[in-house]
Fold Ras-related protein RABA1b-like.
Amino acid sequence: MLIRLIVVLVGDSGVGKTTLVSTFVKEKPDLEITSTVCIEMRVHEVELINSSYVKLEIWDSAGCEKYRSVAKNHYKNALGALIVYNITQRESFTNVDNWLKLIRENCPEDAVIYLIGNKLNRNDILGEGRP
C-alpha cells in the first residue's frame, strides 16, 4: 500500500530549509545548495514496518515575500508543515508568528505543524561545543 503525504517547509530565506530537505532525501548534506526560487518539490519514499510505503511530497518554498502568493496554492493539501528558523538569527525566530499565520490560513485545519530551530552546527557563530 502506498500512502501519499504532502509536507510544506516555510521560513525566512537562508534558514536552511533546502539543506534540511536535501539531507533527508539524499541522506547526506548537499554542500552546493543555492537559494530556492518560488517553490521546489522533492519526492521521497519511506518504507514502513508493515511493508507499506509513504510517498512524501516535500514542498520547499522560498522565504522571500514575492513568491508567497504562488507558494500558498501548494499548501491546501498539506498534512504537515515545518516552520524553520535559524537559531543564530533572532529575526528569523521573530518571524515565526507570520509563518504560523500563513500555515493556519492556507493548510487544512488538521495539518500537523512543527517548529525547527536550524543551524546548530554553526560552531563558528555559537562557539565550539556550545549547544
About this structure: The first helix runs from residue 17 to 26. Residues 126-131 have pLDDT under 50 and may be disordered.
